[in-house]
Amino acid sequence: MTEFRSNSLIALGGNLPSAAGSPTATLVSAIAELSRRGLYVQLLSRFFHTPCFPAGAGPDYVNAVIQVRTGVSSDELLSILHDVEEQFARVRDQRWGMRTLDLDLIARDDQVLPDLEIYEKWYGLGLEEQKRQAPKYLILPHPRLQDRGFVLVPLCDIAPDWVHPVLGLSAREMLDALPKAAIAEVQPL
User: Fold this and answer.
1) What does the pLDDT look like over 49-104, one tens digit per residue?
2) Which of 88, 93, 160, 165 could pair with 172 in a Cys bridge, judged by C-beta atoms 3.0 to 4.6 Å apart?
3) Which segments within 6-101 are labelled E, that is strand?
4) Peptide bond preceding 59: is omega within 30 degrees of 0, i.e. cis?
5) In the beta sheet, which residues pair with residue 170?
């Protein structure tokens, strides 16, 4: 029997249909597949309709956040997420491009990976560099989560008191710091 040790937050999104159906159906099927692969889904946010990011890059998204408990390592968890994305025909040919399924590991307990110095480098990366560069390794917490209403709104649905291990801010405080317009465009389905 697997020993469930770590709590992980995973952001889900999609804006293209898959063999499972609409983006909403794809997210539901992906959550079921994660459970089949040994991740214990503890919490599931509502599903939200979100404008495509960046604007004009494709159809609007459906987004959600789940909290899972697992005993696998962070790298093993990331591998599971990538495998499930591939199962749902995720294609990685364009950064921030359209996709059937996006599964982002956004946080795992209070881990900062691979270390604080590298986290801070990616946290401080300007928008133009973010568009051109992708890290070669897992960075936790996700260095952009505090900037994204489409992550913070569903995160606050399930864990408003979760505290960012570097910034020291709760999910609710990070959401409240966003422009009101960015929050208003994330609507429950």
Assistant:
1) 999 866 777 899 999 999 999 999 999 999 999 999 999 986 755 545 678 999 99
2) 160
3) 6-14, 40-44, 48-50, 61-70
4) no
5) 163
Side chain identity, residue 41: V
Q: Which residues of 67-97 are buried (b: 16+ CB within 10 A; e: fewer)?
A: bbbbebebeebbebbeebbebbebeeeeeee
Q: Are the CB atoms for 101 and 18 separated by under 8 Å?
A: yes
Structure tokens at 118: 């590298």
Tokens of 170: 């709760």
A 10 A CB-CB count for 44 gives 18
Token couple for 130 = 């973010």
Helix (H, G, I), strand (E, B) or coil at 149: helix
* Nearest-angstrom CA–CA distance, 119 and 161: 22
The string of pLDDT tens digits covering residues 147-162 is 999 999 999 999 999 9
- 49 Cβ neighbours under 8 A, 6+ residues apart: 60, 61, 62, 186, 187, 188, 189
Structural domains of the chain, ranges and CATH numbers in brackets: 6-188 (3.30.70.560)
From residue 115, alpha-carbon distances to 8, 60, 118, 119 in Å are 18, 34, 6, 6
With CA atoms as reference, report the closest residue to 25 among 75, 71, 62.
62
